[in-house]
TrEMBL record:
GO terms for biological process: caveola assembly; muscle cell fate commitment; myoblast fusion; notochord cell development; regulation of cytosolic calcium ion concentration; regulation of membrane potential; sarcomere organization. May act as a scaffolding protein within caveolar membranes. Interacts directly with G-protein alpha subunits and can functionally regulate their activity. May also regulate voltage-gated potassium channels. Plays a role in the sarcolemma repair mechanism of both skeletal muscle and cardiomyocytes that permits rapid resealing of membranes disrupted by mechanical stress. Mediates the recruitment of CAVIN2 and CAVIN3 proteins to the caveolae. Its main location: membrane. PANTHER family: CAVEOLIN (PTHR10844), CAVEOLIN-3 (PTHR10844:SF16). InterPro entries: Caveolin, Caveolin_CS. It is found in: Cell membrane, Sarcolemma; Cell membrane; Golgi apparatus membrane; Membrane, Caveola. GO terms for molecular function: molecular adaptor activity; transmembrane transporter binding. Keywords: Cell membrane, Golgi apparatus, Isopeptide bond, Membrane, Transmembrane, Transmembrane helix, Ubl conjugation. It comes from Astyanax mexicanus. The chain crosses the membrane at residues 74-101. GO terms for cellular component: caveola; focal adhesion; Golgi membrane; sarcolemma. This is Caveolin.
Length: 150
């Protein structure tokens, strides 16, 4: 039983750092579904009555599609790794600040407000509770009658 637990723990630790990348579905969470999915028909459209020559339309479609494809490939080949390095550094800094600065500040704030809330609660129970209890006893003998006269 202990060996099985150690094996599962080793698998979890190994999987956390050695995650395989899906080369087919490169947007599994579909974060770019509506944003950058741009096709020829999304950018260039000719309304009825205003059509170019069929050959020009086909050549425009091919030119747009191929140039977009290769321009993206060249840009990602040249700038992909440096930009990934910058974003990795940026998110590492954000994570570092969140873990080592933001959360301790929030925790400290919650501890201080808990102390203040106890003092506030003590004051309310000490001063306001007796006052409102006395008011309740004073007005407990008041009777209200509602009549509707026609």
């Amino acid at each position: 039983m202990a060996d099985q637990y150690n094996t599962n723990e080793e698998k979890i630790l190994k999987d956390r750092h050695a995650k395989e990348i899906d080369l087919i579905n490169r947007d599994p969470k579909q974060i770019n579904e509506d944003v950058v999915k741009v096709d020829f028909e999304d950018v260039i459209a000719e309304p009825d009555g205003t059509h170019s020559l069929d050959g020009v339309w086909k050549a425009s479609y091919t030119t747009f599609t191929v140039s977009k494809y290769w321009c993206y490939r060249v840009l990602s080949a040249v700038f992909g790794i440096p930009v990934a390095l910058l974003w990795g550094f940026c998110f590492a800094c954000i994570s570092f600040c969140h873990i080592w600065a933001v959360m301790p500040c929030i925790k400290s704030y919650l501890i201080e407000t808990q102390c203040l809330s106890r003092i506030y609660s003590l004051c309310i129970h000490t001063f306001c509770d007796p006052f409102f209890e006395a008011l309740g006893k004073v007005f407990s003998s008041v009777r209200v009658a509602l009549r509707k006269e026609v």
